[in-house]
Amino acid sequence: MDLGSRPSPFRLHYGFSLGIALLLGIPVEASQDHDHPPSSGDGLELRETQLEHVISSNGWTFMQDGMVFVTFNRQAKPMGSTEFGSQNWWMGMASRAAGSGTVTVRGMLSLEPLTLGGDGYSEIFQTGETYKNEALTNRQHPHDLGMQLTMAWRLPLSHRTSITVAGGPVGEATLGPVAFMHRQSAAQNPFAPLGHHTLDSTHIAKGILATRVDHGPLAVEGSVFHGGEPDEHRWGISDVGALDSWATRVWLRPNAHLALQVSHGFLKKPEALEPGNLRRTTASVSWLTESEAGFSAVTAGYGQNRRDHEASLSDAFFVEASHRFSPHVIYGRFEAVDVETGLLLGLPEHTGHAASVLALTVGTLRDLP
Hints:
Blueprint: E1 15-24, E2 52-55, E3 61-75, E4 82-98, E5 101-109, H1 112-115, E6 121-131, E7 134-140, E8 146-156, E9 161-170, H2 196-199, E10 208-215, E11 218-225, E12 245-252, E13 258-267, E14 278-291, E15 294-307, E16 313-325, E17 328-340, H3 341-344, E18 354-366
Antiparallel strand pairs: 1-3, 2-3, 3-4, 4-5, 5-8, 6-7, 8-9, 9-10, 10-11, 11-12, 12-13, 13-14, 14-15, 15-16, 16-17, 17-18
């Protein structure tokens, strides 16, 4: 087949976005959770973004967190497009004492099926998931309305040791770094990493059971979950499937500023249009320091996908950072990612051939009065 008339992914491309970010929180009687990452065990997901707290009189503790980006996005043609859209999510959590432990219910919602549409938003070199039964290329898929619905129970065994069990129809597998929208180093960046499907795409698993053991600065996690990516029906959870995949992850938090993780997992047929299974291995390190004026956060991570029907590997590496000095925020991300050239060139089948892409994202925000 002659590829000469097709757009080549090996040229320099650019993207530009102009946006407004709205932080969703409860301004009254609120305090900030500064744990990095939280080690309370109320949920298996290690989060870095700050949650707003309100404690009610009936023994329940309610928390919420959220973000809305309203963006003008211009990505270079012919691979990209120009469009308006909104990336957004909201998370709520309620917890209370239950016997000797703590029970936590967590829900996370997104209106991206409405604000972005079924094919998401333009992002050059991005791949993953489908739209109208075709592979999405040069676009980032929208998140489902239900991004998470889980319940967890944490039981302290001593002052240094605890065990947590969790599960639900939609949750986060114990694989990869903290999901990009919850990392302080990326929280103000409206765009998903190009390596999302090599690092943290299992933050939405349609069916999951998980457990975690904390002992001092060390945490060991394991989960079984549905390995298939969410389907195109973004408004429901009818695609909850068999617990056919597994993952394990180890966290080390030597001090309040530093967190390291390594993880490995098996995913059964994650992509609807791609044959076979894959094994994923990731490692990451995050650093966070906070002050009255703001914070500085840096995350570096590496991921590798090994597909059982191909002899080749695909790798992704990133370094990202955010620095807030109120009322300003500056952020950036560098990535080196293997992308499947056949998909980007419009070939009808997965060829397995990959090429490396280097990407740099920089941005700034300013709080309005």
